Amino acid sequence: MPCSIARSLEVIGPWWALLIIRDTFMGVRRFKDFEKSLGIAKNTLTTRLNSLVDGGILERVPDPQGSKYLEYQLTGKGLELFPVIVALSQWGDKWAVHEDGPSFEIIDTRDGDPIPQQAIRGKDGLPIPREHLGQRPGPGTIAQREREGRA
Known about the structure:
By secondary structure, this protein is mainly alpha-helical. It has a domain at about 1-80: Arc Repressor Mutant, subunit A (Orthogonal Bundle). The chain is built from 7 helices and 4 strands, in the order ααααββααββα. It has helices at about 5-10, 15-25, 30-40, 40-55, 75-80, 80-95, 140-145, and strands at about 60, 70-75, 105-110, 115. The strands form 2 sheets. The chain has a two-stranded antiparallel ribbon. Strands 3-4 form a two-stranded antiparallel sheet.
């Protein structure tokens, strides 16, 4: 499917995967720590971790302390999901917040302040209002139309 959103979800997978990625950004590295943090069944966690490794989001690395257990770390591909995690968190804090409030805040460690709401920005660095965003067919759509003889 040429849709970038659909293809991204194919790699990232179900919602458990995003929680694993979130935990990895927050410093979780070991299977037992993911299991404890998420309260997830071992077989489900194993499947999700394997999918994230197969998708190139996580990689298994030796424990820096020399333990026999492997750790999981984000790849470059996985690290680029940080803005997605932040945007989902900010959206959830506004529209799906728990009655007790958010479970964590993403802060700028230089001053301790919460980070600003994520925005889509133009070349000049200024936010682009939603009404000024558009779309046009990309190379994948054009190639698909050509294959189907609809170009």
